[in-house]
Write a structure and sequence with these properties.
The structure holds two protein chains of two kinds.
Chain A lengths: L2 H22 L8 H8 L2 H18 L6 H6 L3 H31 L4 H6 L1 H29 L2 H20 L15 H27 L4
Chain B lengths: L1 H7 L2 H28 L8 H4 L8 H15 L5 H8 L1 H6 L4 H34 L23 H6 L1 H29 L3 H5 L1 H15 L10 H4 L10 H27 L2
Helix pairs in contact in B: 2-4, 2-7, 4-7, 4-9, 4-11, 7-9, 9-13
The chains are: A mainly alpha, B mainly alpha.
């Protein structure tokens, strides 16, 4: 078995555990929708568990082939390679997270509440995916800028933690917007903003890769 | 042999780890001491009731103890892997005994993690003596700390000799920093990617942190280093659980090193 798959399995196990931990606290006899929601999208669990795991998984695999620059005759290929590679790391991890909590909730007593508000929960988890992509985009930008995996990871995790503490101080940041159930259209509006930010960071990456020394 | 390792240490990574630790330590001081300095010291707070390790309320300490494995791993834990990749270790194996060499690498990793954590925590603790008076913590006046035998080890010693308790806490935490660093060095023998080894300490911390939510020990005693390496922890701790988890960590690291030596370095 290749070593990359061996290390990847560890990350999937951890993500599945995070999904299980979200639904583990649902022990009250008559849970409301708010209990279900706040247990699954617990900012404490997500900022200390989910985001660092995904950031570690993406920072470990931040590599590009220098030969491809010669083959395609442009430096842009570095940026596109890194974007695609991290996209294929993020999405399976995110999918395993939502599948875990969906399956555990579907076999529990709160199944009806979950199915009634299915679209809202899916919108919120889609918002989490956008936040993850945003954080990883910052990480990739910093990696192209500083050439150091460690520094890029440290700054990104600092952004994550600082926004978590702002959330704890009742100052709403857009990273932890999913912590309270909002209308689906509000999530869609925030997602549009997120897409604009992510495209800006993507263009920035392409521009940075053009000036990169190999 | 010690001269070789002294020359081998990469200065920039040591400075990076120290900068991270110092930033978090200073952040904690700003958060925790500012309200006392701007208003007044009504509850006769002292360094012993405010410093990094006893602080449960402010984010600086939580951030420090969450990132502690990574900060401890940065300075010296990747030296062995770098030398294995470049083939430099085979060059030294001609001159020195292999067992001594591997022991030296692991000890360097341990000392790097130990010293970085100890310096940052000692800096935080000592700088509080500049800001606040040196008073003994009182059972009733400082009851907002909620120190009991469920979340602190050796409570009677904390009220009788707070300085010794704090120094013991610093040494225990730096011991765990060193253990994380040597664990990362041991894991890195087995991995192809250098960064898998570097982040393995943080990964282990998050893994245990999540596992503690799902699988609970009797009486909810925490087995996460994030909880029990503090002087006062946010969840229930126990001396027995702490000792057993420290022992398990030491045994796991030793087995990984011994197996890795016979399978990956000398084969």
């Amino acid at each position: 078995m290749p070593s990359q798959i061996k290390t990847g399995v560890n990350f999937f196990i951890l993500i599945i555990l995070i999904g299980l931990a979200g639904t583990n606290l649902l022990t009250s006899s008559n849970p409301l929708f708010l209990d279900v929601y706040t247990n699954i999208f617990d900012p404490f669990l997500i900022s200390l568990g989910l985001f660092p795991t995904v950031l570690i998984a993406s920072v470990i695999n931040l590599e590009y082939r220098v030969n491809d620059v010669l083959l395609i005759r442009t430096h842009q290929v570095i940026a596109f390679q890194m974007m695609l590679k991290s996209f294929f790391i993020i999405v399976p991890l995110w999918l395993s997270w939502i599948l875990t909590f969906s399956f555990t909730v579907l076999f529990s007593e709160v199944k009806t509440i979950f199915l009634q508000n299915f679209s809202l929960i899916m919108f919120a988890s889609l918002y989490v995916l956008f936040v993850i992509i945003f954080l990883v985009a910052i990480e990739l930008n910093l990696y192209l800028f500083t050439n150091s995996k460690l520094v890029s990871f440290l700054i990104t995790i600092a952004i994550n933690f600082i926004s978590f503490f702002l959330y704890k101080a009742k100052i709403m940041t857009f990273i932890f917007y999913f912590s309270t159930p909002e209308l689906a259209i509000d999530f869609a509006q925030r997602m549009l903003l997120m897409i604009i930010l992510i495209t800006f960071l993507g263009f920035n990456m392409v521009k940075l890769s053009l000036r990169k020394d190999l | 042999m010690s001269i070789f390792f002294k020359l081998r240490i990469v200065r920039s990574s040591l400075i990076l780890a120290l900068i991270c630790g110092f930033l978090l330590a200073i952040l904690q001081i700003i958060q925790s001491a500012r309200p006392i300095l701007t208003n007044s010291n009504n509850f006769s707070d002292s360094p012993y009731t405010r410093w990094l390790s006893i602080d449960m309320f402010f984010s600086g300490s939580m951030m420090f103890f969450m990132l502690l494995p990574l900060i401890a791993c940065i300075p010296t834990s990747m030296l062995l892997k770098e030398d294995m990749d470049s083939g430099f270790i085979q060059q030294i194996q001609i001159r020195k005994r292999t067992d001594h060499l591997i022991l030296g690498y692991i000890l360097t990793a341990f000392l790097g993690g130990f010293l970085v954590i100890m310096i940052t925590m000692a800096f935080n603790f000592v700088s509080y003596f500049v800001l606040l008076p040196n008073l003994k913590p009182d059972n009733l006046l400082n009851s907002n700390l909620l120190i009991s035998d469920q979340n602190t080890l050796f409570v009677s010693m904390y009220y009788r000799h707070p300085l010794i308790h704090a120094i013991a806490s610093i040494i225990f935490t730096s011991l765990w920093g060193g253990l994380f660093a040597s664990f990362a060095a041991a894991i890195s023998i087995w991995c192809k990617n250098k960064f898998v080894g570097l982040f393995s300490g943080l990964f282990l911390q998050i893994f245990l942190f999540i596992l503690n939510i799902i699988i609970k020990l009797p009486d909810n005693h925490s087995y996460v280093p994030f909880d029990f390496i503090r002087e006062e922890s946010p969840s229930f701790i126990d001396l027995k659980t702490t000792m057993i988890s420290t022992l398990i960590m030491i045994i796991c690291t030793t087995i990984l090193i011994l197996k890795g030596r016979s399978k990956k370095i000398v084969w």
